[in-house]
Design goal:
This protein is α+β, with helices and mostly antiparallel strands and 158 residues long. 42% of the residues lie in helices and 13% in strands.
């Protein structure tokens, strides 16, 4: 299965933010849009970075440290570019799902931006998308194999 097939099935919006968007605003937009990441892009077309939910948590914990300093909430006013993952690893609509899954596993990503041949954003693939599509593929293969067994006259394994 290709990434393009996943993108056709998705309803989730592609949420972007400019580099100077505050951490608080980015987190709020993610909550409103019900997405697990936000793509940082100055022009709204080319990814400069990506911020996932865990980036907020890890960076907040790092900012606070072991001893509260009284400025714990100043973190929320920092620009999102301070906490984004950059450079961004991307995939294309023509990539095979298994290649995207391997990239996610290797780099511990939950989301990968999808860019076209010009490097412009055309979507985001999440680990949930990959798992769901993989399960659908396995179900289809299982049905085909079961039908082949039945047509061969062999007794299927229960």
């Amino acid at each position: 299965m290709k990434v393009s097939e996943i993108l056709k099935q998705k309803n989730a919006p592609l949420v972007t933010a400019k580099n100077d968007t505050t951490v608080l605003t980015a987190a709020h937009r993610m909550r409103l849009e019900k997405v697990g990441c936000i793509i940082v892009s100055e022009d709204g077309k080319h990814p400069d970075g990506i911020v996932a939910a865990r980036d907020f948590v890890y960076n907040m914990a790092s900012h606070w440290g072991d001893n509260p300093k009284g400025d714990e909430f100043s973190y929320l006013q920092r620009p999102v570019s301070d906490i984004m993952q950059s450079p961004v690893r991307t995939c294309t609509p023509d990539n095979d799902l298994i290649d995207v899954l391997q990239m996610m596993w290797k780099f511990h990503f939950l989301h990968i931006p999808v860019v076209d041949a010009a490097g412009e954003l055309c979507g985001v693939v999440s680990i949930d998308d990959v798992i769901y599509s993989s399960l659908k593929e396995i179900e289809t293969e299982n049905k085909v194999l079961h039908e082949r067994i039945l047509l061969s006259g062999e007794r299927p394994i229960e």
